[in-house]
């Protein structure tokens, strides 16, 4: 996953599709989010379990443990193969489970003739339904954002035709697994099983070329996810 995604419906839409029997204990904006080009280090809506129900928070995309801060850019992704056992994400696993709702994500394919030239592709659900990325987050209570706050999206190996786009993909969960992922009663063993086997297959998605304007983080319009003509993949 190269590090850009879209989330543009209202938060009510993402919560309703989850059919959660839980109370959202904090207020959130009911207007359309309209983020067509979410970039790392920016704050974006995240759904996470808290005592008494759920919380919807705007959390920075990117996280690092205290001992790694400043040594390199904060990580935005965590590999499914190592997230449960590695030292780096130990503070987040398994208690920091969260969901990053989305509509799709972007990947860039290098030109076979010139690897420096890359064509962005947009990947979304084949039936246009909402997506839920499995995430891990650290969020501290308080009115002001905490410097330690942040989240990462778990990624899995790509399969079938998606391999032509990129060798990794977000760990996208169906709504029923997304509910289980953030349920307080879900055990670490079950959460590990979801990480290992729960990602939706390539057959659930469609992908197409889009404007290179998505490469500029200042561009946020709906035109960024519109299909454009492009040479077929080799």
From TrEMBL:
EC number: 3.4.-.-
Highest taxon of source: Bacteria
KW Protease (keyword) present: yes
GO molecular function: lyase activity; peptidase activity; single-stranded DNA binding
Keywords: Covalent protein-DNA linkage, DNA damage, DNA-binding, Hydrolase, Lyase, Protease
Keyword Hydrolase attributed: yes
Record GO biological process: protein-DNA covalent cross-linking repair; proteolysis
Signal peptide boundaries: none
A Pfam match: SRAP
Family of this protein: Belongs to the SOS response-associated peptidase family.
Name under which the protein is recorded: Abasic site processing protein
Organism field: Pseudomonas putida (Arthrobacter siderocapsulatus)
């Amino acid at each position: 996953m190269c590090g850009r995604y879209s989330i543009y419906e209202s938060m009510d839409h993402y919560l309703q599709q989850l059919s959660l029997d839980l109370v959202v204990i904090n207020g959130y904006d009911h207007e359309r989010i309209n983020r067509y080009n979410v970039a790392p280090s920016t704050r974006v809506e995240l759904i996470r379990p808290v005592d008494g129900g759920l919380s919807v928070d705007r959390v920075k995309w990117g996280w690092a443990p205290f001992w790694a801060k400043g040594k390199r850019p904060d990580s935005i992704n965590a590999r499914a193969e190592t997230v449960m056992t590695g030292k780096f994400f130990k503070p987040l696993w398994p208690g920091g489970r969260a969901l990053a709702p989305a509509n799709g994500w972007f990947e860039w394919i290098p030109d076979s003739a010139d690897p420096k030239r890359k064509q962005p592709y947009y990947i979304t659900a084949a039936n246009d339904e909402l997506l839920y990325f499995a995430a891990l987050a650290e969020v501290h209570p308080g009115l002001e954002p905490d410097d330690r706050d942040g989240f990462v999206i778990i990624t899995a190996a790509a399969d079938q035709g998606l391999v032509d786009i990129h060798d990794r993909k977000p760990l996208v969960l169906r709504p029923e697994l997304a509910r289980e992922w953030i349920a307080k009663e879900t055990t670490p063993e079950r959460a590990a099983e979801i990480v290992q086997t729960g990602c939706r297959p390539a057959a659930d998605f469609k992908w197409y070329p889009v404007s290179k304007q998505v490469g500029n983080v200042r561009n946020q319009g709906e035109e960024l996810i519109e299909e454009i003509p492009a040479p077929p993949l080799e």
